[in-house]
Amino acid sequence: MAAPPPTAIDTRTDVYRANRDAMLALLEDVLDAQGKALEGGGPKYVGRHRERGKLLVRERVDLLLDRDSPFLELSPLAGWGTDDPLGGGLVTGIGVICGVECVVSANDPTVRGGTSSPTTVAKGLRAQEIARRNRLPLVNLTESGGADLPRQAEIFVPGGATFRNLTQLSGLGIPTVTLVFGSSTAGGAYVPGMSDYTVFVKDRARVFLGGPPLVKMAIDEDADEEALGGAEMHARVSGLADELAVDELDAIRLGRQVVSNLNWRKLGPPPRPIADVDPPQLDPDELIGVPPTDVRQPFDVREILWRVVDGSRLDEFKTAYGTQLVCGWAELCGYPIGILANNGILFSEESQKGAQFIQLCNKRDIPLLFVQNITGFMVGTRYERGGIIKHGSMLINAVSNSKVPHLTLMAGASYGAGNYGMSGRAFEPRFVFTWPNHRIAVMGPKQLAGVMSIVQRTAAERAGQAYDEDADEAMRSMVEEQIDGESTALFATGRLWDDGVIDPRDTRTVLGIALSVVHSAPLEGAGSFGVFRM
Question: What are the residues whose beta carbons fall under 8 Å from the beta carbon of 210, sequence distance 6 or more?
Answer without folding.
Answer: 186, 218
